[in-house]
Amino acid sequence: MMIQAATQMAARRESSEKMSKIGLFSEDRTLFPLLSSALGREYQVKLEPTEEGMNSLLWAGGCDVIILDLNSNSDSLQERIESFRRLIALPVPSVIMGDFASRSIASELVRAGAFCYCGRPPSIRDLKTMLSRAYENSSLRQQLRRAHEKLAEPASCDRLIGSSPQMQKVY
């Protein structure tokens, strides 16, 4: 019984480590509970209806991928698109979600740097695939950036011995 409980706890810990944090930038409050339950335990969805709130969430490290919902209740779709452009420029991958009528806008946002486009209502299987690929792509880019930074660091001669002026000049 103890072994089984320990195994279950380890499995829960492992699955929580694999949990992806998704930021949902949407004015539609009904979308949040639908996506949260449909995506399952592998994903933790956090709703932010404002750009300021989404920026705070991103800078706090609160999400791995963001979903930008094109469907908007506000009068100015153009303001929303500009908010999307600013969020897409950040180092967290973005998935654009919109209905058929907004496909041209979504395509424009993908060309501007969003990871991909997902129709609304989404196919949950496809959305999960997009989210995991976006996260994987972002992780690989971060690893590559760190490797480039490490290679760019000047090499040191820590084991060089000598205190003469000529050796100090070399060192």
Q: Estimate percent helicity.
A: 40-55%
Strand order of the largest sheet: 2-1-3-4-5
Q: Could you list the spans in which at least 5 consecutive residues all have pLDDT below 50?
A: 1-16
What letter string, H or E per element, gives the SSE order?
HEHEHEHEHEHH
Radius of gyration: 22 Å
Q: Give the overall pLDDT as a whole number.
A: 83
Shape: elongated
Strand coverage percent: 15-25%
DSSP, total strands: 5
User: How would a textbook summarize the main sheet?
Assistant: 5 strands, parallel
Q: Span between N and C termini? A: 63 Å
Number of helices: 7
The secondary structure category is alpha/beta
How do the strands and helices of this protein lay out in sequence?
Elements: H1 2-17, E1 20-25, H2 31-39, E2 43-48, H3 51-59, E3 65-69, H4 77-88, E4 94-98, H5 103-111, E5 116-119, H6 124-152, H7 165-170
Parallel strand pairs: 1-2, 1-3, 3-4, 4-5
Q: What does this molecule look like?
A:
This protein is of the alpha/beta class and 171 residues long. Helices cover 53% and strands 15% of the residues. It contains 7 helices and 5 strands. A 5-stranded parallel β-sheet has the order 2-1-3-4-5, with helices on both faces. Strand 3, helix 4 and strand 4 form a beta-alpha-beta unit. It is elongated and about 75 Å long.
